[in-house]
Amino acid sequence: MARLKKPDPAAELNMPQPALRRLPQYFGYLVQQREQGVEIISSSRIAEDLNLHPVQVRKDMALTRVSGKPRTGFNVQALIDELARMLDYNNLKNAVVVGCGHLGSALLNYRGFQGYGLNLMAGFDSDPKLVGSRVGEVPIYPLDELDSVVREHQVQIGVITVPRDHAQHVCDLLLAAGIKAIWNFAPTHLSTPEDIIVQNENIAASLSVLSKRLSDQQLRQRSDQIAEGSSQG
Amino acid sequence: MARLKKPDPAAELNMPQPALRRLPQYFGYLVQQREQGVEIISSSRIAEDLNLHPVQVRKDMALTRVSGKPRTGFNVQALIDELARMLDYNNLKNAVVVGCGHLGSALLNYRGFQGYGLNLMAGFDSDPKLVGSRVGEVPIYPLDELDSVVREHQVQIGVITVPRDHAQHVCDLLLAAGIKAIWNFAPTHLSTPEDIIVQNENIAASLSVLSKRLSDQQLRQRSDQIAEGSSQG
DNA sequence: TAGATTGTTAATCGATTAACAATC
DNA sequence: TAGATTGTTAATCGATTAACAATC
């Protein structure tokens, strides 16, 4: 059995955000490795596959308090278990999806959320044709049942996938029903009380990073070519 | 007209990633403000609406080299124009989507990408029923036409929305066709040459951040209650 | 002028990387 | 033992925040 130091609640509460964003990456990667029969893995191997610095991987692994063995590496299963505990993947959290258009349907059809502790247990839509049907096995309700469903199942997380102009209204409905956290896919800013957690899924931000990296690389390559040309000339 | 210092190419190439991720956020926010008739805006107002520190907003605005006026603020349109230039939104980049299931369809139906410089001009799918049809006005081709379509239109960006187990194969096809950047929505790590830009859209990472923030807040609230209870007792 | 806001420089904070000892 | 890998401490790097001058 892999050695495991006592968890440090303070360290876990104050986890740096960049690290917190890397942990699910490790988790997914390690689950995939386990499926391929890998039982022990070194930090340098992880770093290489995920394009990270090996020391950073060791620092992150240290957060899990799973000890590795010099000359061999870390126990994959132990890391998976501890990451799941730290990220609270074992406590399934109920969530509802408001807006069952293309994006909402895609989320409702995605079967991978369970592995990350999220249970999408209901969808809501204003379209009477959708109401009463199921999308990816999840039942779709009319908007005016939102309050009762959320209260009855003590749902904590609301996912907003409605058009931009309806997002704030839906947000208000969710908060009125007692929701504590909002996962917002609508491309707009939501006004909420301070104690409500809002996570904006800004696909444009991600796209911009990609786009900028591409432009920058091409700029660099072009200036390299010019430099080459002039040194040859 | 708003004052505008000369762009600084070095500063733009070496833009810090956290800042780069905030710029599209400002862009979207400012476009929305403009639609509502706002012409001048202060850094403190932006900061308040986007939950940022006002000094940070001013630093970020300084990156655009748009000068604000003391006592009034920044010209909204000037900021929008300069952000669009910095993020290269004006040069429409062609992209293809491989995998036209729920998520791929959602992307193809999303009409907002044009505003962010991305033109999804073709979809590919192995399902013969989809091939020849259109999803959100974008034509769907069979996979074996990927190479010719990508070459013909000099497409630089490939979007992968196929199931996990097909992602690496699709990635290889895209690279063979000359694609330089991959936007990967499949929950798996892709092996690529060093000069290829890969942006992983890890929805699980985002979800985990939300989930952890929720758990942590509830932990804090519970320990606050206990502290309250004992101080009262 | 007084006051509000920008914008810059310095200080702080936090994350990443380097160096190296400890361990198997 | 030799060598490879972990794990910790120190150094560096970079981003955020604070302080305050400049400007309208």
Question: Key features?
Answer:
233 residues, seven-stranded mixed sheet, 9 helices, DNA-binding, alpha/beta, globular, 48% helix, 9 strands, homodimer, two-stranded antiparallel ribbon
Overview of the molecule:
- Two copies of one chain form a homodimer.
- Chain A is built from nine helices and nine strands.
- The mean pLDDT of chain A is 90.
- Chain A starts with 8 loop residues before the first helix and ends with a helix.
- Chain A is of the alpha/beta class.
- In chain A, β5 (134-135) and β6 (138-142) form a beta hairpin.
- Chain A has helices spanning 9-13, 17-35, 43-50, 54-64, 76-86, 102-109, 146-152, 164-176, 203-232; strands at residues 40-41, 74-75, 93-98, 118-125, 134-135, 138-142, 157-160, 181-184, 197-200.
- The structure holds a DNA duplex (24 and 24 nucleotides).
Write the layout of secondary structure elements.
2 copies of one chain form a homodimer.
Chain A: H1 9-13, H2 17-35, E1 40-41, H3 43-50, H4 54-64, E2 74-75, H5 76-86, E3 93-98, H6 102-109, E4 118-125, E5 134-135, E6 138-142, H7 146-152, E7 157-160, H8 164-176, E8 181-184, E9 197-200, H9 203-232
Parallel strand pairs in A: 3-4, 3-7, 4-6, 7-8, 8-9
Antiparallel strand pairs in A: 1-2, 5-6
Helix pairs in contact in A: 2-5, 3-4
The first copy, chain A, binds a DNA duplex (24 and 24 nucleotides) through residues 16, 18-19, 42-44, 53, 55-56, 58-59, 61-62, 67-74.
Secondary-structure element series of chain A: HHEHHEHEHEEEHEHEEH
Identify the most extensive interface between protein chains.
A-B, 63 and 63 residues
Tell me the helix content of chain A: 40-55%
Give the biggest beta sheet of chain A. Answer: 7 strands, mixed
Q: Whole-number radius of gyration of chain A? A: 22 Å
